[in-house]
What does this fold into?
Amino acid sequence: MTHSAAPVDRASVAARLLGFPRLEADRPELKQAAVAVCITEHHGRPALLITRRAPRMRAHAGQLALPGGRREPGEAAVQGALRELHEEVGLTVGPDDVLGLLDDYVTRSGYVMTPVVCWAGDRGELVGAEAEVAQVHQVPLADLDVEPRFLQIPESDAPVIQLPLFDRYLHAPTAAIVHQFCQIACRGLVTRVAHLEQPVFAWR
It folds into this structure.
């Protein structure tokens, strides 16, 4: 059975997330992180903010990613995601603009990553913080709501997820989070992604 894409606006995404049975990873021994799944309105269409990390970053330089990072001591996931969003792309989004949370994703490098979905609306063109972000992309949701590619690797029994974007692929955790978001926001489907594997280069 196929499910066609539904109209995507703030109210519809908020309603779908309200009924989303989120899975939380109870792993207090791991480092806690948060990422912003930030929806903008770009050229009249809903889009998702995706950055290309600066080439001088110590970890995952040059990769496509969602704005986010490690949470500060005592910081909740929502606070951390909104802080990172402001620091990386200069975008101020308030708690009232948060629509919900997706499933936690545990990374191979020892993080529990909590995706925070927020709606920013039309903010025009955005520029990233030079030290952290090389480029800021507002990618139409229609370009991300696609069938992922799954690969098998000898290092793991779990499938590696890839989403085509530009001249390359998004990998987990970003690809897993974006795929789950598009499934719920664009199609009203509950799709679990915690089992999906990262490529080996992202394990460290």
